[in-house]
Amino acid sequence: MERRASFRDSPWYSILESLLGQVDREPTLRAVAELACREVQADRATVFVLDPARRTLSGIVALGAEGYPLEIPLDFDSVAGFAALADRSVRVDDVGADLACIDPRLRFNGRIDERVGYETRAVLATPIRERGSVIGVMEALSGTPARFAPGDADRLEDLAAVAGLVLHVSGLYQDIKDLREVERRKSDFIDLLAHEIKEPIAAVHMLADYANTVENDPAERKRLLERIVLRTQQVTSLVNELLEVSRVKRGLVLGEVRPVDLGALGAATVRSMEDMAERRGVKVTLDLDPDAPKARLDDGLAPYLFTNLVSNALKYTDGGGTARLRVHGDGGGVMIEAIDTGIGVPPGELRRLFTEFYRATNARSRGVDGTGLGLVAVKEIAERFGGRVGVDSALGKGSRFWVWLPALPSEHEPGIPPGADGAAEA
Ligand code: ADP
After folding, report:
1. Could you tell me if 163 and 136 are in contact, meaning their C-beta atoms sit under 8 angstroms apart?
2. Which of 27, 45, 101, 105 could form a disulfide with 36, with the two C-beta atoms 3.0–4.6 Å apart?
């Protein structure tokens, strides 16, 4: 008797098993792409994930083009881009034919073919959705014209639905991992904070005790009192930074929400930090675009954007280096950049800098004072007013931290922050 095909023996079951069994989305998406190849008899399949901030599609899995970083702009200049933007499946029987009869906006981009050494003839692309919104594209390719039949689009759509689930579930796993990581960092931070506060308080105690024993030596007593003042200032600034972050996090408005001239504010901030720059031996320059538009934000919080970015540039740059503050109009908004020639950030750590309490390994190992909270506040402030933040950096050479804010008028459709190419956006 013929054995009934069991669900457990099917590739669908293995995908489900893999999906529930591991956090890493890539192997599961690879299995989905392999199944897609078989189902529609394609030579190659690619799963693209959409990065809305950078308006790109990144190939997470590219069967047949392994090892090539595939990133394409989100525009109508490619079949995958078309599927994402038009939010519908598209079948191209021959990429060399006139595609306008499918849709006048549709174009085929042969750049990837050139890079990976393949000649695409037929393409089938379908959007991957999560709760109705397009989050990527699944694309099947063949070197044979008219390889895909009308029913293949339905098959690929089923697989794209599975890919959507994979991305959703792996996103949940990632959220849990991130939450655990935040919890862990919070505990570490509390230990660190206790230490950071205990140490100067113990020192103050000791200095005060000692000061009592040198009543007859005014010079020594003065020296001890000065050290007491310095130590208490350190604790005060740590506590102030904590309070500042906590206020920003709770969404409190410190000043008035109004149009702010960021160039003028940047210049004033740099002036107020000249002493620090001199002490550190770092040359600070200003590069302000007088035509940069204003941005609407809390004028009590706005200075913090500059003090944090500029003081970091000074803190993490050795004497003899430079720090440049740029403020200019960019992509329908205002771009603030702090560019330094400092210690840089290890590449694997870039994205984590904007998370609470995170300090890069090179900053910690150099014993530079810090809390890992400043950039969190910068990100909160920027995002609260519709902006974004990011960083690119070369270890040992320097960094560029940027904040982009939408320009006035506030009803202006927020643009896309430019200058983010290749950089980690937080
Ligand atoms: P803090 O400087 O108090 O540690 P921040 O939140 O301002 O906290 O910065 C987080 C981390 O980002 C720093 O600890 C450091 O590792 C890294 N960082 C920030 N700015 C720079 C910079 N200009 N150059 C190199 N690393 C930087």
Report:
1. yes
2. 45
Long-range Cβ contact pairs of 159-164 (< 8 A, separation 24 or more): 159/32, 159/35, 159/36, 159/39, 160/126, 160/127, 160/128, 160/129, 161/129, 162/12, 162/15, 162/32, 163/29, 163/32, 163/47, 163/128, 163/136, 163/138, 164/128, 164/129, 164/130, 164/135, 164/136
Cβ of 360 below 6 Å from ligand 1: yes
CA 27 to chain centre: 23
Determine if ligand 1 sits within 6 Å of the CB of residue 353. yes
CB 383 within 8 A of CB 17: no
Determine the pLDDT at residue 229.
92
Number of helices (H), then strands (E), in the chain: 11, 14
pLDDT digits (tens, 9 = 90+) for 160-186: 999 998 898 888 888 888 888 878 877
pLDDT tens profile 53-63? 778 899 999 99
Closest atom of ligand 1 relative to the 363 alpha carbon: 16
Q: Pick from 238, 233, 227, 185: which is nearest to 369 by CA?
A: 238
Rounded Cα–Cα distance for residues 388 and 211 (Å): 50
Question: What confidence score (pLDDT) does residue 266 get?
Answer: 94
Q: Give the CATH number of domain 255-425; options: 3.30.565.10, 3.30.70.20, 3.90.950.10, 3.40.309.10.
A: 3.30.565.10
CATH class of the 7-176 domain in this structure: alpha beta
Contact residues for 221 (Cβ-Cβ < 8 A; gap 6+): 211, 214, 215
Regarding the beta carbon of 340 and ligand 1, being less than 6 Å apart is answered yes
Residue 143 in tokens:
């070197």
Query: Residue 47's pLDDT is what?
Result: 96
Q: Give the whole-angstrom CA distance, residue 383 versus residue 293.
A: 18
Cα→Cα distances 357→184, 252, 395, Å: 10, 21, 20
Q: 313: Cβ below 6 Å to ligand 1? A: yes
**Same CATH fold, 255-425 and 7-176?**
no
Q: Where are the alpha helices (DSSP H) in 214-345?
A: 218-249, 262-272, 274-280, 302-315
Determine the atom of ligand 1 nearest the C-alpha atom of 343.
25
Q: Each residue of 344-375: pLDDT tens digit?
A: 999 889 988 998 778 899 998 887 877 788 89
Q: What is the pTM of this model?
A: 0.55
- Which residues of the chain fall short of a pLDDT of 50? 410-416, 418-422
The tokens of 105 are what?
């906006």
Cβ of 312 below 6 Å from ligand 1: yes
